[in-house]
Amino acid sequence: MSETEQKAPRGRPKTFDRDAVTAIAMQAYWQEGQSEVSLNEVCRRAKVSKPTLYKEFGSEDGLKQAVLSEYHSMTLAPLFELLEQDQPFDKALDALAEYILRDHHEHGMPNGCLFVDMCQCRDQLGELAGRQVDAFKVLSLTAYAAWIDRAKAKGQFTHAVASRTAAIYIEAQIASAMNLQRQGATADEVSAMFRLALSVFRPEAAIHKINSMVCFVRDL
């Protein structure tokens, strides 16, 4: 037996599981807030050394960028795909509400939204994660605005509001619902608030507004 053969390690060599580490970091950031979890703590939970993590992700900033990309694939992309389905605007509103208000724990997810948390802590992020947040924000607003544009083209959205303004409003209501959820509001409370916020886009809301104006004028 050669000297090389004598020194060969026994068993399979250990490999770095990038996906597993990303998932552990995402769960920690999502559940506790990205600013509340140190890189040392991520390494401890993932059972990897900091040099090993740096070798794979480059930096803590690189890890957070990877986490954001995975979060987009897991939660944001399915939402945008839902909005691209060819269904009446009212049905799409219902589907949006059901997706946002789904039981997170039933799906093995923490309360709140990691993307919302990172947007609100944008100034605490590094360059890579910060750019990723900015890119996904543009992507989400573009997706909501395109959805509104399609509804307008079909005559299903008749409100006199710019599509981008409606998109910003929708994103703000999602962020508000996720913040309430993270703060411990009940599912019924979050649902009532979010559905009320979206009700301004429904035809019956416009009819009610017109009727109210007619009553106001008649009472003058």
Describe it for me?
By secondary structure, this protein is mostly helical. The protein has one domain: Orthogonal Bundle (Tetracycline Repressor, domain 2), CATH 1.10.357.10. The chain is built from eleven helices and no strands. Helix 2 (18-32) crosses helix 3 (39-46) and helix 5 (60-83) packs parallel to helix 8 (127-153). Residues 1-13 and 205-220 have low confidence and may be disordered.
Helix and strand arrangement:
Blueprint: H1 3-7, H2 18-32, H3 39-46, H4 50-57, H5 60-83, H6 89-100, H7 114-120, H8 127-153, H9 163-182, H10 187-198, H11 203-219
Helix pairs in contact: 2-3, 2-5, 5-8, 8-9, 9-10
Termini separation (Å)? 105 Å
Mean pLDDT: 86
The third-level CATH topology is Tetracycline Repressor, domain 2
Strand content: under 5%
Q: So what's the oligomer here?
A: single chain
Coarse shape? elongated
Query: What's the CATH class label?
Result: Mainly Alpha
Name the CATH superfamily assignment. Answer: Tetracycline Repressor, domain 2
Low-confidence stretches: 1-13, 205-220
Largest sheet composition: none
Observed structural traits:
220 residues; mainly alpha; Tetracycline Repressor, domain 2; 11 helices; 70% helix
Short description:
The chain has 220 residues and is mainly alpha-helical.
